Amino acid sequence: MIATTPVARWAWGRDDDTADDLTRCLRDALAALAVLARHRFAPTVVGLRVSVKEAGASNSYLFRGEIPVETEGAGAGETVARVADQVRAVMSAGEIGAVDASVTCGGSVVTGHAEELSERLFLLGASAFAGFVTVDLVTFADVWLPYDLKGRPQPEVYAANGPRLAAVLGELAEVLDSETDPDDPTYFAKPTETGAENFFTADGEAADVWRSFEVPRRYDVFTHAPGFGRIGYRRTAEGEVRYLPVESERGLLGYLCRTKEEPAVS
């Protein structure tokens, strides 16, 4: 199951004065991306989103854009140098402030039926400023948990995917030369150094956090909130909208729509 908000988050950070902030950010972002790719959690080519802020001006950017990167060998020095050169070639003049990079990754996971591709497993981010660099990894999936987000046991799914996440977190700590720092609990799970844990009710049963948090979230995405009744569906959306006609024996009933950013609601 894929949630619209993070299921768990982990971070790594350290002081580093071996390079400029642009190089530091790209180096750690691409090194982490290479780890995900080795574990089949990233496609062959991804779009790396990079932003470079102007020092002393929080709302001014010297560069904002997306650069295609091949994930195999992404952490190699020549790849870091190439991407950095691409940014500098079109970057506006000015003093570099904070540098951020992020990429959304999908990959292969084992579900209850078979191994399948999932488009939105992780959001990988990196930031560098004033000699300090951080990397964070966010997952939107529940395949790493002993119970899914509805509280249903999934021993085979967990056995197949949980150790893979643990291996990724361990390798990231090694590659980034920093201990894994589990973030605070989310609505859905409690991150640990090796994965994440489910929430349980007072009766000892796995909590149905999907019904408690995800369903209301999806409802809010598709409705306005003009008053206490929260009546009225949104008529606009940002980005690409995909739609599918819904028909019956009597003809067209309507359309099932979704944006590229949000999951479909049925």
Following the backbone from N to C, one meets helices and strands in this order, namely EHEEHEEEHEEEHEE
Question: Unreliable stretches, pLDDT < 50, 5 or more residues?
Answer: 262-266
Largest sheet descriptor: 7 strands, antiparallel
Distance separating the two termini: 15 Å
Radius of gyration: 21 Å
Our count of helices gives 4
Mean pLDDT: 88
Describe the global form.
globular
| Helix content percent band | 10-25%
Short account of what is shown:
The chain is built from four helices and eleven strands. The chain has helices spanning 21-38, 77-90, 155-175, 209-221; strands spanning 8-15, 45-54, 57-70, 96-110, 115-129, 132-139, 181-182, 190-192, 195-197, 241-248, 251-259. It has a seven-stranded antiparallel β-sheet. A two-stranded antiparallel sheet has the order 8-9.
Index terms:
266 residues; alpha+beta; 7-stranded antiparallel sheet; two-stranded antiparallel sheet; 36% strand
Description:
With 266 residues, this protein is α+β, with helices and mostly antiparallel strands. 25% of the residues lie in helices and 36% in strands. A seven-stranded antiparallel β-sheet has the order 3-2-4-5-6-1-7. The protein has a two-stranded antiparallel sheet with strand order 8-9. Strands 10-11 form a two-stranded antiparallel sheet. The chain is globular and about 60 Å long. The two termini are 15 Å apart. 32% of the residues are buried.
